[in-house]
Specification:
The chain is mostly helical and 266 residues long. It contains eleven helices and five strands; from the N terminus they run αααααβββββαααααα. The chain has a three-stranded antiparallel beta sheet, covered by helices on one side. A hairpin with a 4-residue loop joins strand 1 and strand 2. Helix 3 packs antiparallel against helix 4 and helix 9 crosses helix 10.
Length: 266
């Protein structure tokens, strides 16, 4: 219980937790060998594991899972709306947290994707570098992943209404996804929530799976593949099909039904 609580509540890395486990096991082993305790309770300690199968790392969310995730974080407006945006648009995590309010056009109902967000140290590098008395993290705007990643995405009333509720009345706040006090944590905002999703909700997934799910559900519903590919910012439709679109049970069932219709003409 102690290890699990440290994992989900403190957001420590597994490497850090492993060091804690070594101290606990070493302490109880010493106590047991010197007859301070009759049983060594640390023998069965294992770190939480939520590995994703290596053959197909994508997890296509069901509607129930999406509702579980959104309901779990309904009181954390930054995480809730970031997840909702990713699910409704298929944006990458760095694209989601790079959004500023001038990227959202309420009149034309679109989102403009024109930059990424990057985390670096004070010197501009990607490795950790701490200067005493200063934050180790500096956020930078970067270019989009590819030229086709620059795009304008139509959005529906679900997101528009959500953004209307989200806007924070602080003139100095420009980022869309910040805490209620205006603090910006970028993509780090998702570290703790995904521990909750993995451990508490039992859903083995990544942020990128919102993108996979968005693409798959669009294709599953009969959306034009060219429009989906453009929406995701891909260079061609083959890339969209091969990488992001997974065959679902509904697709398989519909394929069988369509062939039955063909057979009915015999």
């Amino acid at each position: 219980d102690f290890i699990n609580k440290m994992y989900i509540d403190k957001s420590f890395s597994k490497n850090f937790l492993n060091n804690i486990k070594k101290v606990i096991k070493g302490s109880f082993t010493f106590a047991y060998e010197n007859d301070f305790v009759k049983v060594n309770p640390s023998i069965g300690i294992k770190l939480p594991k939520y590995d994703i199968p290596p053959d197909d790392p994508a997890h296509i969310f069901t509607n129930e899972e999406i509702n579980m995730i959104l309901n779990r974080f309904k009181n954390n407006h930054c995480v809730y709306y970031a997840f909702l945006t990713a699910y409704c648009t298929g944006l990458r995590i760095a694209e989601v947290f790079a959004l500023t309010w001038n990227d959202i056009d309420f009149r034309n109902k679109t989102i403009s994707v024109n930059k990424n967000i990057l985390k670096k140290n004070q010197a501009g590098g990607t490795k950790k570098r701490h200067i005493s008395g200063n934050s180790t993290t500096v956020w930078y705007f970067g270019t989009c992943k590819t030229q086709t990643s620059y795009r304008t995405i139509p959005i529906g009333e679900t997101l528009l209404n959500a953004y209307a509720e989200l806007q924070i009345p602080l003139d100095e706040v420009d980022f869309v996804f910040v805490k209620k006090n205006g603090v910006y944590e970028g993509t780090d905002s998702c570290k703790y929530p995904f521990k909750v999703i993995h451990y508490e909700l039992g859903i083995p997934c990544r942020f990128h799976d919102f993108r996979d799910t968005h693409a798959t559900k669009l294709i599953e519903s009969g959306a034009d593949i060219k429009a989906v590919s453009k929406r995701l910012g891909h260079r061609n439709i083959d890339f969209t099909y091969n990488i992001y679109v997974r065959v679902t049970q509904k697709m398989e069932s519909e394929t069988a039904d369509k062939f039955e219709e063909i057979c009915g003409t015999l």
